Amino acid sequence: MELPVPSRPPANASSPSSNGVLCPSAATFLFLPCAYTLLFVTALPANVLALWVFLRHISTMSPTHVYLSHLSISNLLLSLTTPFLAAYYAQSSVWTLDAGLCQLLVHGITPVLHINIYISLMILTWVALSRFATLIQHTHASRPSACVTLLPPAFFSRLKKASFASRVCVSVWVVAVGGIVPVTVYYSVNEAMKGAAGSEDGGAARGKELCYSPAVEIGGILSAAFSVPLIILFFVFYLLVLLSYVTVLRHIRRSHRNTTIGTSQSLLAKVFRNIVIIQFVLSVCLLPYHVFKPIFISFAHSRFELTNTPGDVHDRCHPFSTYVEVKNCLYLLAALRGSTDPVMYFLLDRTFRQQIFMVFGCKRDKVQDKTMSCSVAGRASQRLAQQQ
C-alpha cells in the first residue's frame, strides 16, 4: 500500500478555526509512523520481559523493584497505544473526525499518553529521592547533611519498606488518573469534537472534518489553561531530582576531604550514577516537550486573533502547522522512554541485571584473577568454568 501524499483537504471540508487547515509534511505522515512502529516493536517485549522478571524472578522485592515494576506497567500500556498513533499519523490526510479510530484516539489514547508521562515523572523522582535518602543516612562527610536533621528518622525507615513504596505508587496512579482524565475528557468532548462541529458550515460538516485538525492538535483555551499546572508539576519534580544530584555531588566532595570517618566510596559512586541516569532520562526525553509546550500554547492562543484574516480559509495551511509537527516530534521523544526505561532498569538495579543474565542463560563467575566472565553455553561451558 502506498503512503499517502501530503496534500490540502478538499475545499468543501470545514475547519474548526478560521485560520485554515493543518498541512502535514513528511515528518508527520512518514517519520512519525515509522518511529511509533519501531517503538512498539521494541517497547512491548522489553517491558513484558522486565515486568516478568520483577514479578516472577525476584523473590524479595525492594522499594526500587516496586517503583520500577509500576513504571513497567505504565510503559506497557504506552506501548499498546503506539500502533494507533502510527496509524493516525500515517492516515492524517484520510481519517475523518467521525471515524471510529479517530474517536478512539481522541477519547482513549490521549489520556493514556498523558498519564504515562506524569506517572513516569513521579516514580522516577521517588526512585532518585529514595536513593538520595539512603545515601545521606548511611554515609558521612565532614559534617552531616542538613536533610538528616530536617527530615524525621521515621521517613528514612519507611523508604526502606516495600509496603511504603507500594502505597506511594498507588497514590501516584490515583493522582495521575484523577488529575489528567477529567482534563482530557473535557478536551476531547467539549473542544476537539464540539469545536469541529461548530465550524462555519455547522454540525453537518462534522463528518467531513479531518481527524488531524487544529481542533484536535491545538485544543481550546480551557484545556491549555489546565496544561499549565502539569507543566509546573514537571518542573517541580525535575528540580527535585536536580537538587538531589547537586546535594549528592557536594556530599561526595565533603566525604573525600574527610580523614576521620570512613565512607563507602562505592555506595557514593553508585547512588551518584543512578541519579545521573535518572536526570539524563528526564532531561533528554521529557524536558524538551515541557519547555516547548508553554511556548506552543502561548503562540497558539495569543496570536489567534492576529492570524484571523478573511478569505477562503480552506485553501491555505494553518499558520501553526509546523509548530504542531514540532510538538508531535517532541512528544515522540517523551514516549521513547517506553523503549529506554528497561535499559535504565538494567543500569540502576544489580538484582534486575543478574536476573536478566540468568533468564538468558548467562552466568557471571569470578575467576582467580578477579575478572568477570559470562558463560552463555550449557553444561560444557559450565564444566570449563569449573575447571578454570
Automatic annotation (TrEMBL):
Subcellular location: Membrane
Domain (G-protein coupled receptors family 1 profile) ranges: 46-345
Signal sequence annotation: none
InterPro entries: GPCR_Rhodpsn, GPCR_Rhodpsn_7TM, GPR82
Entry's Gene Ontology cellular component terms: membrane
PANTHER family per UniProt: G-PROTEIN COUPLED RECEPTOR 82-RELATED
Protein name as catalogued: Probable G-protein coupled receptor 82
Gene that this polypeptide is encoded by: LOC114847441
